[in-house]
């Protein structure tokens, strides 16, 4: 299980560093746009969290914002402000750790990362698999925007990421033009099928706000994947030697 | 060939273990590598699934801004 420990350690360290750094960027780029979009969710003003004692009510969307309704009753949610941002940092770190595990596990199939430069190449592949390909059919979306059934979109997202990963592997490691062609077909297939779309794209969100958000989201994801790949590649030979 | 190279726990596959044992004390067989990679990937799927795809309301609310910002399908 020494290899498992190595993968875990590389993903953990690279994930924490990448998560903290990209969360900091998110808090100044994408998050303000999300908060702005939430003001379009209902005519009533969004509840302002002025004290921690309102923790359970501050993020409630029940009556004021039916478009953002997630169910009945009082469900827990972080209070706006510091608590909400703290969970954003935590969730970004967890995302980076999880994607780091997938990234490093994949690289071990080819013997493990040897350098930060090799890691960045794998990071770019991760960017293509988890940001570009799913984002083509399902662009980054703001609250209050119309969307198709959640489960259908999640399935398309996961299927597209998996198809892109398999297709890229065939393109890079397949040893024949036939396999490369198959890789191209597998990458294109989800887009030929098409992502689930809402019945109408009419949205209260101004087009300019959505455009800024798409640019910010994809740009921060690019940074995320270059960091995650580069750090993993830099760490792998150092931690591997110790843990192996 | 090298019968004196008695690495611990390598009795089952001494041939496969020799190259790995030459580099480090730990013994790594293709099977153990595959197992480690599989478990690491499964853990990754579990973590990403929890943050980005879980339908549990508390998980959704905690990771809400990240789901939008990273463009996981949300709502």
TrEMBL record, chain A:
The keyword RNA-binding does not apply. This is Cobalt transporter subunit CbtA. Residues 46-77 are annotated as: Disordered. Residues 56-73 have a biased composition (Basic and acidic residues). NCBIfam families: CbtA. The lineage of its organism: Bacteria, Pseudomonadati, Pseudomonadota, Alphaproteobacteria, Hyphomicrobiales. Keywords: Membrane, Signal, Transmembrane, Transmembrane helix. Residues 46-55 have a biased composition (Low complexity). Coiled coil: none annotated. Residues 1-23 form the signal peptide. The chain crosses the membrane at residues 86-107, 119-136, 156-173, 178-193, 213-235.
From TrEMBL, chain B:
The keyword Membrane applies. It holds the Pfam family CbtB. Keywords: Membrane, Transmembrane, Transmembrane helix. It comes from the Bacteria. The chain crosses the membrane at residues 34-58. InterPro entries: CbtB_put. This is Cobalt transporter subunit CbtB. It comes from Ancylobacter defluvii. The lineage of its organism: Bacteria, Pseudomonadati, Pseudomonadota, Alphaproteobacteria, Hyphomicrobiales.
């Amino acid at each position: 299980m020494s290899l498992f420990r190595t993968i875990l350690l590389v993903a953990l360290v690279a994930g924490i560093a990448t998560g903290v750094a990209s969360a900091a960027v998110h808090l100044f780029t994408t998050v303000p746009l999300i908060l702005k979009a939430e003001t379009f969710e209902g005519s009533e003003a969004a509840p302002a969290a002025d004290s921690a004692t309102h923790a359970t009510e501050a993020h409630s969307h029940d009556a004021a914002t039916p478009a953002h309704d997630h169910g009945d009753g009082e469900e827990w949610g972080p209070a706006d402000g510091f608590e909400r941002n703290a969970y954003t940092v935590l969730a970004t770190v967890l995302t980076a750790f999880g994607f780091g595990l997938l990234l490093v596990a994949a690289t071990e199939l080819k013997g493990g990362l040897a350098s930060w430069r090799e890691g960045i190449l794998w990071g770019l592949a991760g960017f293509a698999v988890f940001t570009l390909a799913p984002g083509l059919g399902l662009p980054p979306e703001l609250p209050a925007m119309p969307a198709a059934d959640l489960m259908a979109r999640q399935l398309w997202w996961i299927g597209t990421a998996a198809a892109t990963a398999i297709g890229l592997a065939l393109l890079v490691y397949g040893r024949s033009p036939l396999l490369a062609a198959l890789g191209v077909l597998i990458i294109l297939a989800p887009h030929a099928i098409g992502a689930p779309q809402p019945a109408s794209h009419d949205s209260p969100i101004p087009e300019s706000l959505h455009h800024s958000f798409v640019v910010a989201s994809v740009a921060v994801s690019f940074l995320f994947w270059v960091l995650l790949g580069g750090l993993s590649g830099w760490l792998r030979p150092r931690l591997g030697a110790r843990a192996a | 060939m090298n019968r004196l190279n008695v690495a611990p726990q390598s009795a089952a596959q001494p041939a496969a273990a020799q190259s790995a044992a030459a580099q480090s004390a730990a013994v790594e067989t293709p099977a153990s590598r595959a197992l480690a990679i599989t478990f690491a990937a499964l853990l990754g799927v579990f973590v990403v699934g929890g943050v980005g795809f879980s339908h549990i309301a508390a998980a959704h609310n905690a990771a809400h801004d990240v789901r939008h910002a990273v463009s996981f399908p949300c709502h």
